[in-house]
Protein 1
Amino acid sequence: MRGLIVAIDGPAGSGKSSVSRLVAARLRLPHLDTGGFYRAATLVALRAGIDPADLDGIVRRLADVEISSRDGLTVVDDVVVEGDIRGHEVTAAVSEVSAHPEVRRLLVEKQRQWVADRGGSAVVEGRDIGTVVFPDAPLKVFLTADELERARRRAVQRGEDPATHLEAIRRRDSMDGSRPVSPMTPADDAWVLDTTDMGIGDVVETIVEMARVLQR
C-alpha cells in the first residue's frame, strides 16, 4: 500500500502502541512510534544532566545526537535504547520535555524524514500525528478509553496496582491536552474509537478495514 499513512493518536493506555504495531503488520507497512523519539530526547537530556525545563540546553544537546527507529525499536546514535526510555525517570519527565516547541519541531522533522525514507507509507502512532505531523494523512484514528480502563491496562503491562497508574494517567492527559504547541486532540477528520469495551483484535480489524477501503 504505497502512499498510505495511517495516523493513530491517543492518550496513554488507549492501546495505540499495540494496535498500531498489529495494524502495520497486517498492512505490511513500516511502523513508527513517535513517542519513542520524545522519550529518547528526554533520556539524552537526563543523561547529560540537563534539567527538563532547560529548553536551550536540550536543543543544543539534541543537535549532537541522532534519534531514529530501527526494527520497531528506538535508537540513539545507532544504539538501541528501548528499555532505557521506558524507565520511571524518563516517564516522569517526558511530558515536560515534549512540551517545548523547538524540541517538537526538531523531532517532527525527523519523524517526517523517517517516513519519507521508507517510501512515504507507514503506520505512525503518537499524540499529534493527525493534527501536526501528518495532517494530510488519508486515514486518521484517535483511540480513547475510560481512564480507569487505561490505568488497568498499564498496570497489567507492568504487574502493578491500577491505582498507582490512575493519577499518572490523569496528570499526563492534562499536560498533553493543555500544552500550547501540538496539544493532544483528535483531528477534525479523525475516526474516534472508544476501545474501553473492545478487544484489541476488533480494534485492529476495524482500522485495517478502513485502510483497505481507502485503497480500493
Protein 2
Amino acid sequence: MPTEGAVRRGIAAISIVASLALAAQAGAALPSVKSGPRPGPDALYAPPPTEVPQLENAAPWRAEPILVSGAQAYRDGEWLYQDYLHDDHGAAGARDPNDPFGIDAHLFSPAAGSMTYPTDPVYAHNAADLVELRVRPGAGETLFRVTLNTLKDPARTAFTLALGNSAGPRPWPHGAGVISPAEVFVTVHGANADAQNATTGGPVSGATASVDARRRQVEVRVPHSAWSPGTGKARVSVGVGLWDPEAGAYLKPGGTEATATRPGGVAPSNAALFNVGPRLAEPQPEVSQYGAGVTIGDAAAGAAVQGAWWREKAQADALRIGDVTPFAAEVDFGKLAAGTDDDSGVPRTGPINRILASRHQFGQGIEPGRVCYDLAAGFSAGARCEGRFVGQLQPYALYVPAKP
C-alpha cells in the first residue's frame, strides 16, 4: 500500500488532471447536474483561504510568491527562490531508529537525509524547513527575507547566508559543518545577526535582523559597507539549522537517536544543517521500477535506494560530504535595479512540485502520532487515517503535458 505522503501526492495529481479536463469541457464553470446533490464535496466549491501568513508581504516586500518548489523568479524588483516543503532531512548517514520519515512510516517514499529533530515539541519536527528566500536591493543596503515552515521559537532556529564568491570553498561559521564559496557569511538566530569575512573569519559590522513570528519570516539587512553586490550578478546561498543558545553555535546531532535537546542521525561530515538552497536541479524520483511484476518488497527497497520523493536527495548527498557548493543562485542585481520581471525559471510543464495553501491548519510542523496506516492491521487504519502535516502549507505534485 502507498504511504500517506504518496497517497496525498497521487490524489492531488489526479485531482489536478481531472480539474483540467473539466475546465476544458465547461470553461470556468464547475460541473453541475439537474437533480440531486452537486458533484463533489463542499470543499470543492469553497473559496481559497483569505489569510495565509507565510505568503503575506509587509513593506517593503511586495512580490507574489512562486508556489512552485525548486524555482526562481524576478518579480516587482525582488528575486525569489521557492524551496520544497518538508525536505528538511539533512545529510545522508546513519538513521535514527525513531525517524518519523523512516521506512515503516514512509515505506514507498522514504527521505534521503537521515537527520531528525530533538523531541522537544518546540521543534515540531520541522523547525529548519525553508519555504522561501527572497532578495531586494535597498538604499545603501541589500535586504533578504527568509520564510520558514515552522517557527515556534525563533531563538532555536538559525540560518546562514553565504554571499558573494571566492577563489575556493570556505568553511561556514558557527559549526555549520559545511563549505562553499563565499565572500561574506551572515548568520542569523532569532533577531541576532552577525557577519564574518569568509576568508579571514574576522567580524564585519552592520548586519541586522528582525523577526515576524506570525508570518514566520526573518528579514536581514546587510549594508553595502559589509557586502555590496553592485549591479552585476552575485552568488547567494542559504542553509538552515537549529541553534544552541548556550554554545552560541549550530546544534549538532549528539548520537543516532534524537533526545529532547539534540538532533538524531549521524552524518559522516558532522554537518549541522537540515535544509540548504537554492537547489534548482534536484533529481526527480524514478518511477519506472514500480511497474507490473514488481513486488512490494522490491518496490520499497527501490524507493529507499532512489530516495528522491521529498526532492532532497542531492541535498542529502552534499551534506553527507559537507560541501554545499552546488546550491547557489547567481542573482542578477541589474535586473533588480531595472525592475525586470522574469518567470523563465518557473516550470510550466512536466513534473512540478507545488505548494497549496489550505483553508485548514491544526498547528505547526509534523505530528508523527497522526498515522495513516497500522502495521499490525496490514496497513488498514480506516477512520484512524489522519494527516501528519498539520500546517497550512501543503506539498503536492502534478504532471503537466507539454502538448494536448
Protein 3
Amino acid sequence: MAAHLAASDIRPSLVLCSSSLRTRQTLAAILPTLGDALEIRIERELYGAGAAQLLERLRRLPNRASSGMLIAHNPGIQDLALALAAGGPALAGLREKFPTGALATLELDVERWRDLDHGTATATILVTPRSLESGAGV
C-alpha cells in the first residue's frame, strides 16, 4: 500500500488515526510516502467508533485541511464510506468488502467539513491488498 500511495502521489493534509497498535503500525508503514506537509492526530475516540461517530469527527476537521486520511476500524469505516458515497466507480466494491489494509478514496461534494453528510461524496477508487497483488485496482 505504501508503494501505491507513493506512485499515486496521495498527500493528505491531515491524518486522523485510531490509537490502536495496529492502526499506528499502518500509519508508520505508509508515513514516509505521505510527504512532509501533513498534520497527524492519533485519537482514542476513533478506536471502535461507528460510522456516526466517525462522521461527527470528520465534521470537526478544520477547513484549512484540504484533504484528510482516516485510519480506523471496521465495520465503522466501511459503513461511513457507504453512507457518504452517493455513487461512483468504487461504490460496488465498497459494498462488497472493505478488507483490512484497504484504501478508499472519496471525493467530497461540500465546501466545509462541517457540511459533510450522507450522500455528499463520490467513491472514486478502492484499492485492496489483493488488488495490489494482482496489479488491478477498482
